Amino acid sequence: MNAPAGLAKLTAEIDGRTPTHRDRAIDGLRALALLAVPAGHWLVGGFTLDAGGGLHNASPLATFGALAPAGWILQMLGIFFLVGGYSSYLSYRRRKGSARAWITGRLIRLGRPVLGVTAVWALLLPTLHYGLGVPVATLHTASTLVVQPLWFVGVYAVITALTPCCVRASRRLGFWSAAPLLGSVALVDLLRYGPYADVMPSWVSLLNLLPGWMFAYQLGVSWADRRLGRREAWLLLWGGAALFATLLLAFHYPASMVGVPGTSRTNSHPPSLLVLALAATQCGAAILLRDRLARLLLRPALWAPVVIINLAAMTILCWHQTAMLAAAVPASYVGEIPGLTTAPDTAAWILARVAWLPLFAGLLVVIARFTRHLETPWDHTGPIRRASAAVLAAGFTYFALVA
């Protein structure tokens, strides 16, 4: 059987095994949001080489501020939280045990892959340094990049644990249950950017961490609860777009959705009101396009990749930075290679980085073949092995964040 025929058979088989009640649009939106994470990190994750051959983080946004609007498309965490809330509501409603058992099961599913990637990297660090002579600077950079996307999993886990509260809020307030979260973020932004910003403690911005990311999740819960329909979606779309434009033009919020080296303000860590405005716009558009997307994904050739991406969701989130490092670290021994180890401050770098993206994706596929099992239950492992993995993970996280 030739390759095209085999691929056609595989896509047809995946399509045939899909239950008729499966919500293909939700899976499609999740896959789209998942792919935006590595795409965004790979495009802004530049490096520079020091005199000793060590790699250091560098961002093209520091030079090319005009690229910031690209982040308005690639920053799709709002969509991810929307479908997360939608799916969690349905799962919570179908649960057979207690709410506590449901929450425990969800948290274990989220924590297993994170524990796996950090434990593996804890073993890799001494091997790379003492066995292969990788500079400490490179190991610091690599550790930071690996931990960078994992904060999202932690926040998502906390919000998932609050699903019962989100369900009760939706049943009481419906679509408007997300409004207090929006108001909370607006108030904190007023405190940290308003007339009394100089006397506010630096930690006040952390108050936005939970409500900022919970906003779209609550919208997803209300969507699944049938309290958010097309009329409310139009309100989200146009209201979010109007708020986004107002914050940019009248209140001078940074245009970039991610942090830019050398700037004092950032929109995403923790989320600002601009992030919620973008999330509202994206969520409104996603809800309005749901039926059209569902019809599009009835095609087996389009549906099969969506299934594969969803099955490897945590693998993609946890290991995509490792895939980029698998190309950049060996390249650092060669010297300055455009798009990999040269400073991201020229248009040529951008073109070269785009050309490297297929390699990063291929390396991620290879890595996934060996790490995919970390998403499956570890029932066959004993408490000593699990405890050892936890200690290794804690050690690696300490090195990445403190050392």
Textual characterization of the structure:
This protein has a two-stranded antiparallel sheet with strand order 1-2. 68% of the residues lie in helices and 2% in strands.
Main beta-sheet annotation: 2 strands, antiparallel
Average residue-wise pLDDT: 90
| Structural category | mainly alpha
Q: What is the helix tally? A: 17
Alpha-carbon distance between the two ends:
54 Å
Order of helices and strands: HHEEHHHHHHHHHHHHHHH
Beta strand %: under 5%
Gyration radius (Cα, Å) is 22 Å
**Percent range of helical residues:** 55-70%
How would the global form be characterised?
Answer: globular
- What are the segments in which pLDDT stays under 50 over at least 5 consecutive residues? none
What is the count of β-strands?
A: 2
How many domains make up the coordinates? 1
Strand order of the largest sheet: 1-2
What's the arrangement of secondary structure elements?
Layout: H1 3-17, H2 24-44, E1 46-49, E2 55-58, H3 71-74, H4 77-94, H5 99-131, H6 136-147, H7 150-161, H8 163-173, H9 179-193, H10 209-224, H11 230-249, H12 273-288, H13 290-296, H14 300-311, H15 313-332, H16 347-371, H17 383-401
Antiparallel strand pairs: 1-2
Helix pairs in contact: 1-14, 2-4, 2-13, 2-14, 2-15, 4-10, 4-12, 5-6, 5-7, 5-15, 5-17, 6-15, 6-17, 7-10, 8-10, 9-10, 10-12, 11-12, 15-16
Task: Give keywords.
17 helices, mainly alpha, globular, 2 strands, 403 residues
Summarize it.
The chain has 403 residues and is mainly alpha-helical. The chain has 17 helices and 2 strands. It has one domain.
